Structures are given as C-alpha cells and as structure tokens.
C-alpha cells in the first residue's frame, strides 16, 4: 500500500488526486476494518490508518473514510474544545479547503462559509492568497492550513489574511514545522528534488521553524500556539493527532 500511494502522489497532480481520493478510500476501506485507531472527524474506527506522504509514504496517517491526516484531526478537536466555531454565528473563509472538513463545515447552520483556492476543483472561488479580491474586514475566521509553505511570499499572504479579517477575528495558520531549525527559504531553489531535500516536499518553497510565531507577529497578528495536544493523553495516539514538530495549533488574532 505504501508503494501504491507513493506512486500515485508522485505521478498525479493535486487536482487529480482530489478527484480520485474518495473512490480510492472506498475501495481500500474493508481491508482496514478494526479497532486500533479512531478518527474524531468521521467517528470511524479502523485497524490502522492508511499510509500517506509525498516521496516515501509514511504509515498510519490517512483516515480511509474521511481522508483526514494528523493535522486535520488535531485541528478538529481544537475547534470543538477551544473555540466557538461550531456554535457562534461566524463568517468563515477557508483557503485551500480540505475534504475532511468541506461537507461538515458547509452543513453548519451557524457558519457563513466560503472556500477559496488558486485552482482546486472543490473551492467556491478561485483566488491568489497573496492578492485576494476581498474587501477589508470581511471575515471572523480564516482557515489557512498547510498553505503558506507553498506560496511565493508567506509574509504577503499573512498580511492579506490579516486585512480581510474583522477586528478581533482570528486565523488558523498551520504549516509543517521543524523545531530544531529557524525558518529556511531561498527563492533561487527551484529544483523539485532540492526542495524535497531542503523543505520536505517537492512543491514547498520554505521550511518553517522554531521562530514561526515571530513570523506570524511580523505580519501584524497577535500570534498564538495552543497546546491542546498535550492535554489529550492516550487519545493523542489512538487518534494519531500530530506528527513530530506539529503538536501545537498555530494562528493569529487581529487586534480589535
């Protein structure tokens, strides 16, 4: 299974993988029935999760039912337990919408929910996060989950997110992080193999590091790094909630 997923992720575009993913999950699901892991998003139990990853697929990561990864499951719990996302009347922009959330967030009556992406087939609107055709002070919440490692200028993108947030609004700004280094980026690095080596994935243009909250503050946010992962005990392992270096929920608030 690892070899199959590694081959698919290396040969097909993100847009094609999105279209294929639900059928693939449906076909392999019976082989993963069991009680070893639990997905908090869809509520299903499996023997283990599917392997997933660009390059070499890593074991026990992807939910066969809702296609959630570690970051999706952790963020879901954070939104449920630490915010009013599921109860308050909120205008939400979700940049690069993820399949585990899409239908569930759209079904929430309390949300005025819009999805946006440069070219995703499942987004409501298409836009460049570095230059959004959206008025100032429009949204209560912006979710931007594992996007900023892909964009040409993450600081410009963060400032755009800050601009479209209402005063007092907040943004989820999760990225892959290595806590043993500072943020590393070099615009001259364009070779996919070199990007894979330096930044962990062929289409990443930087590796965020232990200075990430400083990076968020530089854009004008009041940054936060929530440690809910460390309050969950054994659930963190049963639900496979985080990869090393990604146990915190990072984001920022716009001053009122």
Key terms:
7-stranded mixed beta sheet, alpha/beta, 14 strands, 256 residues
Element-by-element helix/strand order: HHEEEEHEHEEEHEEEHEHEHE
How many helical elements? 8
What's the CATH superfamily of the largest domain, by name? Vaccinia Virus protein VP39
- Count of domain modules: 2
Unreliable stretches covering 5 or more consecutive residues: none
Q: Give the rounded overall mean pLDDT.
A: 90
Q: How helical, in percent, are the residues? A: 25-40%
Which CATH class of the largest domain is shown?
Answer: Alpha Beta
What's the CATH architecture name of the largest domain?
Answer: 3-Layer(aba) Sandwich
Decide which structural class fits the backbone: alpha/beta
Order of strands, widest sheet: 7-6-5-8-9-14-13
Radius of gyration from the alpha-carbon trace, in angstroms:
18 Å
Task: State which percent range the strand residues make up.
Answer: 15-25%
- Could you tell me how far the N terminus lies from the C terminus, measured between alpha carbons in angstroms? 49 Å
Please provide the count of β strands: 14
* Major beta sheet summary: 7 strands, mixed
Q: What name does the CATH topology of the largest domain carry? A: Rossmann fold
Description of the molecule:
- The chain folds into 2 domains: 2-68, no CATH class; 71-253, Rossmann fold, CATH 3.40.50.
- It has 8 helices and 14 strands.
- It has helices spanning 2-11, 14-28, 70-82, 99-106, 154-164, 192-199, 212-218, 235-238, and strands spanning 33-38, 45-46, 50-52, 58-62, 90-95, 111-117, 125-126, 139-144, 165-172, 177-178, 184-185, 206-209, 222-226, 249-253.
- Helix content is 30%, strand content 25%.
- It starts with a helix and ends with a strand.
- The protein is of the alpha/beta class.
- The strands form 4 sheets. Strands 7-6-5-8-9-14-13 form a 7-stranded mixed sheet, sandwiched between helices. Strands 10-12-11 form a 3-stranded mixed sheet, covered by helices on one side.
């Amino acid at each position: 299974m690892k070899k199959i997923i590694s081959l698919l992720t290396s040969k097909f575009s993100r847009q094609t993988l999105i279209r294929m993913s639900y059928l693939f999950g449906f076909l392999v699901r019976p082989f993963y029935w069991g009680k070893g892991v639990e997905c908090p998003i869809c509520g299903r139990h499996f023997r283990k999760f599917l392997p997933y990853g660009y390059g070499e697929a890593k074991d026990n990561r992807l939910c066969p039912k809702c296609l959630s990864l570690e970051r999706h499951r952790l963020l879901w719990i954070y939104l449920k337990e630490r915010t009013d996302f599921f109860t308050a009347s909120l205008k939400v922009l979700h940049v690069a919408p993820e399949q585990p959330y899409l239908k569930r967030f759209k079904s929430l009556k309390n949300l005025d929910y819009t999805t946006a992406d440069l070219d995703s087939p499942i987004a409501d609107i298409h836009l460049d996060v570095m230059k959004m055709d959206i008025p100032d002070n429009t949204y209560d919440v912006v979710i931007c989950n594992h996007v900023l490692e892909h964009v040409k200028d993450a600081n410009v993108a963060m400032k755009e997110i800050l601009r479209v947030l209402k005063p007092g609004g907040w943004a989820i700004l999760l990225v892959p992080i290595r806590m043993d280094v500072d943020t590393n980026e070099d615009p001259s690095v364009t070779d996919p193999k070199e990007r894979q080596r330096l930044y962990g994935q062929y289409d990443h243009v930087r590796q965020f590091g232990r200075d990430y909250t400083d990076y968020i503050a530089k854009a004008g946010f009041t940054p936060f790094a929530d440690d809910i992962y460390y309050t969950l005990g054994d659930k963190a392992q049963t639900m496979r909630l985080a990869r090393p270096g990604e146990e915190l929920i990072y984001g920022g608030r716009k001053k009122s």
